From TrEMBL:
Keyword rRNA-binding attributed: no
Biased composition regions of type Polar residues, renumbered to the chain: 57-70, 410-433, 583-592
SUPFAM superfamilies: P-loop containing nucleoside triphosphate hydrolases (SSF52540)
Listed GO biological process terms: microtubule-based movement; mitotic cell cycle
GO-annotated molecular function: ATP binding; microtubule binding; microtubule motor activity
Binding-site residues for ATP, renumbered to this chain: 286-293
Residue ranges annotated for the Kinesin motor domain, each copy included: 204-547
GO cellular component: microtubule
Source organism of the structure: Rhodotorula toruloides (strain NP11) (Yeast)
Matching Gene3D superfamilies: Kinesin motor domain (3.40.850.10)
Family named by the database record: Belongs to the TRAFAC class myosin-kinesin ATPase superfamily. Kinesin family.
UniProt biased composition (Pro residues): 140-149
Protein name: Kinesin-like protein
Coiled coil: 656-697
Length: 844
């Protein structure tokens, strides 16, 4: 299927009206039945919302106080003063639920067996039709309005779990969620079962749209847009442009500023799924400044999905005494198409590799074992500090990258293998042999919860750096759309899914290709100035809704699970400990109390201490409902995964590691080429299918149409022939080129031969020259002697001519002390005879 990108990433900035006057007196509203229930007025922000983890406020935040409200019925960007039933005021979970309307929406949590989940039809913007009445009985009950443990202290109501905190390092109120599933209204077994039923079958991506309060800064002009251009129907999960147009339906639509609302709709279920062994991915998608980071991270008084998910995880552990858990976390950034490990930013390049099942994974990536919420909060803060953010025209602190926070959850039945808490004397428990060979005692469930904050799609921006970042961001989001389009294509021949075209899609591949639970939170700005971007976001959200998933529970039976590795390692340490203790049998008699025995005892004691410390350290990584509180009070800093490797110093030598790296690179390249080949194959198949359907169409056409078609095809044929002939000419030219290249090569070889002969000749000539000069010199000596003795001499002219020449020759000085004999000369026999003859003619 040809993909047409209907996203408009570079929609030019629209001029939009600033709010010229402060909110006037309330426009009389005519609430429809949908909005007729008055909601208690809530201050949107009891305190100005902080950027998560103490990042400064964007100036836009100052305008986030919603003083306008959507109204039922067609609105055309109407201004309304904050009213008690303010649509954009934080929805208050403590307030009663809206009464069921005549055709209430079907919630995402309905099992396929109970009632079909709504599906958006391909390309249709209003295909998502409510199909049944009544609320889903399976919809998890909203959390109680007042937490039994900590009542809402911040005026938000809602989750009531995160009372206002004054400083950043503060935990997300670990105790606040105590009460666990029952406290959250999650205790019903039937609900958990129904979740499993749903997950066992085919499922779609869960899509929740979050509409931020309208007062957002949308352009470089600093103009504040405080109008809304959308009708928002929360009860039915429906959105429509106020000026008319199609309806958009989703699993849920959330307004206001309570992050707990979004968590209820699109967070909790997936987190619980992850705790039960299903991979789960939640990502926020939307235009820049539409509230993705706000939704995922939130702030201390209004925690986003990530901190709420983390709290949920720990609550779940507290509520499941029958299991033990091992948690680890990683934090990654994709900036300008390169990967950065946010927990270890100075480490070497982070790459994407493929496993045997062709699933992409990131390597190497630092993972840290975590045992408390505070550790996760610290880890997130550390990562966030390393993230790329920058000021854009639209957002004071815009995330310029995609970030992926991942928690890996391993769990195993606790009953057979629980560790005694240190109050029990450890040594008594130590077995002789490792009692926990990998996989020997039960299956480990392993799952990943990925929380992804995508960078925002952008309009044209005024800054150069931002523009190039924006190009990368838009490209990767476009690739994401292409991937989604391929996954939801109706074509018979499954199109190639271009995961490889961006790092983001490679990372999302394991989730999008089907075996994970996926939720997308599409964030949107309801302002008229953002209408094109918002439509594009909604279209994306509708398309992604059609991706079919089949989540599977991941059970690991071999020693891949860290839980198993650590358990085996502990068992091994315990065995060593026991052996060391058993070796300590020397009686402490005065005769043996010499220095050597003392030293050996000291060493042994140190060894025992060290082993005990190691055992303790490893044990402290396991979480159970019994020890979670203790861990919270005495947590060590999180530790990177693979301490076993370090302890055994089994790291391969640098050259082997480099070779392994090269091998992996080569394998990657091969895999990429194979992918490319597959893509070409699928393209060929697509073209063939296209051809075939055209032919079939042609067959049923009328005669005149057929004639026209024949004419068209003949023309096309002729054009193709020209191309083929050209291709022939090209081929001939290529052949000639190769011929000339061969000849050139021959000439080059010949030239090389000549040059080496020349070199030999030069050597020969130099030697001959030497020979001549040496002989001339000798003869000159002789002649000089004769002249001295006879007083006059007659000699041949040729010799006379040589004398001044010799005197001038600088080479005479350089004459080798080795006298060159005629026989030494590299000449043929005939040549040597000629030389001999001339010599005797000259010097006789
Ligand atoms: N629902 C909301 N209620 C109140 N304030 C909000 C809401 N959504 C967003 N904001 C505020 O709007 C500003 C921009 O939000 P945020 O940074 O989350 O946007 P973003 O989509 O992550 O943007 P980018 O893609 O540029 O990173 C922030 O100051 C944030 O506090």
């Amino acid at each position: 299927m040809a993909f047409t990108a209907d996203r408009a990433p570079f929609v030019p900035v629209r001029k939009h009206k600033a709010s010229t006057s402060p909110p006037q007196s309330p426009v009389p509203s005519t609430p429809s039945s949908r909005f007729s229930r008055p909601e208690p007025a809530q201050p949107l922000f009891a305190a100005p919302p902080l950027r998560p983890l103490s990042t400064p406020l964007g100036p836009s935040t100052a305008h986030n106080v919603p003083s306008y409200t959507a109204q039922a019925g067609p609105l055309s960007a109407r201004k309304v003063v904050a009213a008690p039933n303010d649509l954009f005021a934080p929805s208050c979970p403590s307030s009663p639920l809206p009464p069921p309307s005549s055709a209430p929406r079907i919630r995402a949590k309905i099992t396929p067996l109970a009632a079909p989940r709504r599906k958006a039809l391909p390309g249709a913007e209003h295909a998502d039709v409510p199909v049944s009445s009544g609320f889903s009985p399976l919809k998890r009950a909203p959390p109680p309005s007042v937490s039994p443990v900590s009542p809402p202290a911040n005026g938000f109501g809602g989750f009531g779990a995160f009372p206002k905190v004054s400083h950043v390092a503060q935990n997300w109120e670990v105790g606040a969620l105590r009460g666990g599933m029952s406290g959250l209204g999650l205790g019903s077994i039937s609900e958990v079962e129904s979740r499993s039923v749903r997950k066992g079958g085919r499922d779609n991506v869960l899509v929740c749209v979050r509409v931020r309060p309208p007062a957002a800064k949308l352009a470089a002009s600093n103009q504040i847009v405080d109008e809304i251009a959308w009708e928002v129907d929360r009860a039915n999960g429906r959105l429509a442009q106020s000026t008319g147009g199609p309806d958009y339906f989703f699993d849920s639509v959330v307004t206001g500023s309570h992050n707990s609302d979004v968590y209820d709709e699109a967070g909790r279920d997936l987190v619980l799924d992850a705790m039960e062994g299903f991979d789960a991915v939640i990502f926020a998608y939307g235009q820049t400044a539409s509230g993705k980071t706000f939704t995922l991270s939130g702030n201390n008084s209004n925690p986003g999905i990530i901190p709420q998910a983390v709290s949920e995880i720990f609550t779940y552990i507290r509520d499941h005494p029958e299991k033990e858990f091992l948690l680890r976390a990683s934090y990654l950034e994709i900036y300008n198409e390169s990967l950065k490990d946010l927990l270890d930013p100075t480490a070497g390049p982070v790459k994407i590799r493929q496993d045997e099942q062709k699933r992409f994974f990131v390597h190497p990536l630092r993972e840290e074992v975590v045992t408390t919420e505070q550790q996760v909060a610290d880890l997130l803060k550390r990562g966030a500090d390393n993230r790329h953010v920058g000021q854009t025209d639209f957002n004071e602190r815009s995330s310029r990258s995609h970030s992926v926070f991942q928690m890996t959850i391993e769990s195993r039945d606790n009953s057979a293998s629980s560790f005694p808490e240190p109050s029990t004397p450890r040594r008594m428990q130590t077995p002789n042999t490792p009692r926990l060979a990998p996989g020997s005692d039960g299956v480990v469930r392993m799952s990943r919860l990925s929380l992804i904050d995508l960078a925002g799609s952008e309009q044209a921006t005024s800054q150069l750096e931002r523009r190039s970042e924006g190009a990368f961001i838009n490209k990767s989001l476009l690739t994401l759309e292409k991937v989604i389009a391929s996954l939801t294509s109706d074509a018979k021949q499954k199109p190639h899914v271009p995961y490889r075209d961006s790092k983001l899609t490679q990372i999302l591949q394991p989730s999008l290709s089907g075996d994970a639970r996926v939720a997308v939170i599409a964030t949107m700005n309801p302002s008229p100035a953002a209408i094109e971007e918002t439509k594009s976001t909604l279209r994306f959200a509708q398309r992604v809704k059609r991706v079919v998933l089949k989540a599977v529970q991941h059970e690991v039976v071999d020693d891949k699970a860290l839980i198993t590795k650590y358990r085996s390692h502990i068992a091994m340490l315990e065995a060593q400990l026991k052996a060391t203790l058993a070796g300590n049998t020397a009686p402490n008699t005065p005769s043996q109390a010499d220095l050597a025995a003392d030293q050996s005892r000291k060493k042994q004691a140190e060894r025992v201490q060290d082993l005990e410390r190691q055992v303790e350290e490893f044990r402290s990584l396991f979480l159970t409902s019994q020890n979670i509180e203790k861990r919270r009070q005495s947590a060590l800093p999180p530790r990177p995964v693979s301490p076993i490797k370090v302890a055994r110093s089994s790291t391969p030598p640098a050259d082997i590691a480099a070779l392994e790296e090269k091998l992996l690179d080569a394998q990657d390249e091969i895999a990429a080429l194979k992918d490319e080949r597959d893509e070409l194959k699928s393209r060929v198949a697509e073209l063939e299918a296209d051809r075939l359907s055209t032919l079939q169409k042609d067959a049923s056409a009328s005669d005149s149409d057929k004639d026209a078609r024949i004419l068209e095809l003949t023309k096309e044929n002729q054009e193709l022939l020209v191309i083929v002939r050209n291709a022939d000419v090209e081929g001939e030219m290529k052949r000639q080129e190769r011929k000339y290249e061969r000849q050139l090569e021959k000439h080059r070889l010949y030239q090389e031969g000549l040059e080496s002969t020349l070199e030999q000749e030069r050597k020969r000539v130099a030697q001959f020259e030497r020979f001549i000069l040496q002989h001339l010199s000798a003869q000159t000596e002789v002649l000089a002697g004769r002249r001295r003795s006879s007083g006059g001499i007659t000699h041949s002219a040729s010799v006379t001519g040589f004398v001044p020449l010799m005197a001038e020759s600088p080479q005479l000085d350089a004459i080798s002390p080795d006298f060159v004999e005629l026989d030494d000369l590299p000449f043929s026999k005939a040549g040597k005879e000629t030389i001999s003859r001339s010599r005797s003619r000259m010097f006789s």
